[in-house]
């Protein structure tokens, strides 16, 4: 999956990090004709030498490396990611211009890839939480509940979540080999499944109106498309007489901060939604609702895979007394990544720059959001995707029924008042 190429120049990053020097003495560099002079500090001169060192190493790799030689762009990209690996930021990543454009397309629901939703890495690998029907992974036989342990022969345990998910995507028509750990009634087996990438189209928001005019909205991830889809779902449910609402964020890994703020703003009265503070917001920035609430009882369903933006929405509803949270403890990702343009390469740097705090000032990083009503799924449903549960197992979905019971009771109380 080309991740191995990055190892070739990880040493570059280590050298760069340890080789930085500072000094106050200046020197003169004179060009060959002695006609022009540029004054540089020793520090600036050392930086030029370091840049030359990168070129020299890339030349040596191109000339002498016995394996497949990456392109210079791939070497520079791997060098950038090597530096980011050295800072210990598990979410940091360097994107080329093309990779960044592909990332945006994927976030908005249309991209070239496999059509799967994967969890964060754990001791078994990366669990496949959903396989989108009619897309490449489904057609190749990949199943919900499978664990990816390697991509094109590269162990996922040697790479970050961001590196692995990037390696899963690629050009239409290209192939990728997934090493899968599958558990069934007969035990566990390891499979190699080759998948041909294709254009993937994914809807982010699904809605229904249940009995007693209870609205149900499931959000799979937060993107700007999610905002439009959510707004349309709310409008449709209101027109059909919705009296209460259940929002399902189970297995939602997060997404765009502005998107979740926009969605929260549609639901909440005048209140704080989330506070972001750190390097880009040194004094802290409080995102607020404009005061137009939805006006019906709300319950939010979460699980251990509800992360980041999902936790922002759940905590905002919970701590502003706009509704309750049902399910199990959430993942606990309370940090924010910022995309920063790299002008010299037209690439983009994704870096953890801030943390977020809930309306009550709580830091939920590596802690998560605790539900008001803790409900486990029955064992027979554990390991199934939310898509499969919503489609075929609603009667057995204990978390959904706990949420429905709560909002319906609240709605009936409102009618009696």
Number of helices: 12
What structural class is derived from the secondary structure elements? alpha+beta
First-residue to last-residue Cα separation: 62 Å
**Major sheet, described briefly?**
6 strands, antiparallel
Mean pLDDT: 87
Report the portion of residues in β strands: 25-35%
Q: How many DSSP E strands? A: 21
Tell me the overall shape: globular
Query: What's the alpha carbon Rg, rounded to whole Å?
Result: 25 Å
Contiguous runs where pLDDT drops below 50 for at least 5 residues: 5-34
Question: Percent helix among the residues?
Answer: 25-40%
Features of the shown structure:
single chain, 417 residues, alpha+beta, six-stranded mixed sheet, 12 helices, 34% helix
Describe what is shown at a glance.
With 417 residues, this protein is α+β, with helices and mostly antiparallel strands. It contains 12 helices and 21 strands.
Would you give an account of this structure?
The chain is globular and about 85 Å long. It contains twelve helices and 21 strands. The relative contact order is 0.10. The model is unreliable at 5-34 (pLDDT under 50). The protein has helices at residues 3-8, 10-18, 42-64, 72-86, 97-107, 136-140, 161-168, 224-239, 257-267, 309-319, 386-392, 398-416; strands spanning 26-30, 37-41, 93-95, 110-113, 116-122, 125-131, 147-151, 154-155, 175-184, 187-196, 198-201, 205-210, 214-219, 244-248, 272-278, 285-288, 298-302, 324-327, 335-342, 347-357, 373-374.
């Amino acid at each position: 999956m080309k991740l191995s190429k990055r190892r070739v120049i990880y040493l570059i990053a280590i050298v760069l990090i340890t080789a930085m020097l500072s000094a106050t003495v200046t020197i003169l560099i004179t060009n060959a004709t002695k006609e022009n002079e540029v004054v540089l500090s020793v520090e600036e001169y050392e930086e030029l030498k370091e840049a030359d060192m990168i070129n020299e190493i890339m030349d040596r790799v191109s000339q002498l490396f016995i394996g497949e030689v990456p392109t210079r762009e791939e070497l520079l990209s791997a060098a950038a990611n090597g530096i980011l690996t050295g800072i210990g930021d598990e979410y940091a990543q360097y994107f080329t211009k093309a990779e960044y454009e592909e990332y945006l397309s994927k976030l908005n629901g249309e991209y070239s890839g496999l059509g799967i939703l994967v969890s964060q890495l754990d001791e078994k690998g990366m669990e496949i939480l959903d396989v989108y029907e009619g897309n490449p992974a489904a057609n190749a036989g990949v199943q919900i509940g499978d664990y990816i342990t390697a991509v094109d022969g590269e162990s996922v345990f040697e790479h970050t979540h961001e590196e692995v998910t990037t390696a899963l995507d690629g050009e239409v028509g290209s192939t990728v080999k997934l090493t899968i750990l599958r558990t069934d009634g007969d035990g566990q087996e390891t499979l190699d499944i080759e998948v041909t990438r294709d254009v993937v189209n994914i809807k982010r928001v699904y809605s229904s109106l249940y009995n007693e005019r209870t609205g149900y909205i499931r959000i799979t991830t937060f993107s700007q498309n999610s905002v439009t889809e959510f707004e349309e779902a709310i409008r449709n449910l209101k027109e059909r007489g919705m009296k209460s609402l259940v929002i399902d964020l189970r297995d939602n890994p997060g997404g765009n901060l502005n998107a979740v703020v926009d969605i929260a703003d549609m639901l909440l009265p005048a209140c704080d939604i989330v506070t972001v503070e750190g390097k880009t917001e040194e004094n802290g920035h409080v995102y607020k609702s404009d005061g137009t609430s939805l006006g019906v009882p709300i319950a939010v369903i979460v699980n251990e895979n509800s992360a980041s933006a999902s936790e922002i929405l759940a905590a905002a509803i919970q701590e502003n007394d706009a509704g309750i949270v049902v399910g199990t403890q959430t993942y606990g990702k309370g940090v924010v990544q910022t995309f920063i343009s790299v002008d010299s390469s037209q690439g983009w740097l994704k870096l953890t720059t801030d943390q977020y705090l809930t309306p009550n000032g709580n830091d939920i990083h590596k802690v998560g959001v605790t539900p008001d009503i803790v409900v486990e799924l029955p064992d027979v449903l554990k390991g199934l995707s939310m898509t499969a549960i919503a489609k075929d197992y609603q009667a057995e979905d204990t978390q959904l029924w706990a949420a429905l019971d709560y909002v319906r009771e609240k709605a009936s109380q409102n009618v009696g008042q």
